[in-house]
Amino acid sequence: METTTETLQVITPEQLLNQWQGHRALTRRVIEAFPEEALFNHTIGGMRPFADMVVELLAIAAPGIKEMMTGKTATFNEDIAHGNKKAKLLELWDQATEDINTYWPQIKPEQFQQPIKSFGQYEGTVWSSIFYFIDNEIHHRGQGYVYLRSLDIEPPFFYER
Fold first, then answer.
1. Which domain does 107 fall in, by range?
2. Does some domain include residue 159?
3. Measured between alpha carbons, how far is 69 from 97 in angstroms, rounded to an integer?
4. DSSP string, 6-62
5. Least packed by Cβ within 10 Å: which of 33, 76, 83, 85?
C-alpha cells in the first residue's frame, strides 16, 4: 500500500478572506443603521453600547492580522479615538478593512497551521485565531441586531454579505 503526504485544501486563504470581508461589510451596515446617539449610548441588560463593541473589533482585526504577518506581538488597545462620531468609526472600520487586505496576502499558506500567541496572551494557531476574530465579530454583530430591534430599526439581512 502506498502512503502519500499530499495535503488537501478545503478553502483557500483568498476564499477565507472573502468570507471574512463579507462579514465585515455586513457589520459596517449594522454600524450605519444606528442613529448616532444610540450607537454610543444605547444599552440593554448591562451590555456595552455597540460603539464599544466596534472598538473592540477594531482593536483585534487589523492589528491581529498584522501580528500574524510580521511575527511581532501586537498590543491589544481599545483606546481608539473616535470622538463619539459614527463617521469616524466608519472611517476607522474602512481603514482596518484596507489594512487587512494589505497584510493578508503576506501571510504564507503554511503559516496558517503555526502556533501563535495572539496579542501575547491567547494561544492557538493562526487559523484558529482568525476564526476567533470572525466569531467574535458575528457575536457582537448579533448584539447590535438586538439593539437595533429594540430601537424599532430593521437590521440588515444577515445573509446579505
1. 13-150
2. no
3. 15
4. PPP-SS-HHHHHHHHHHHHHHHHHHHHHS-HHHHHH--STTPPPHHHHHHHHHHHHH
5. 83
Q: Torsion over CA of 69, 66, 109 and 10, rounded to 10 degrees?
A: 170
Cell 498584522 locates to 66
The DSSP letter of residue 106 is G
Which residue is associated with the grid cell 491589544?
76
Number of domain units in the chain:
1
β partners of residue 13: none
Would you say residue 157 lies in a domain? no
Contacts 24+ apart (CB under 8 A), 76-84: 76/119, 76/121, 78/52, 80/55, 82/51, 82/55, 84/36, 84/40, 84/51
pTM, rounded to two decimals: 0.92
155 is a domain residue = no
11: exposed, middle or buried (Cβ count in 10 Å: 0-12, 13-18, 19+): exposed
Residue 116, C-alpha cell as written in the block: 501563535
For 44-87, the pLDDT digits (tens) are 999 999 999 999 999 999 999 999 999 999 999 999 999 999 99
pLDDT at 94: 98
**Which CATH number do you get for residue 106?**
1.20.120.450
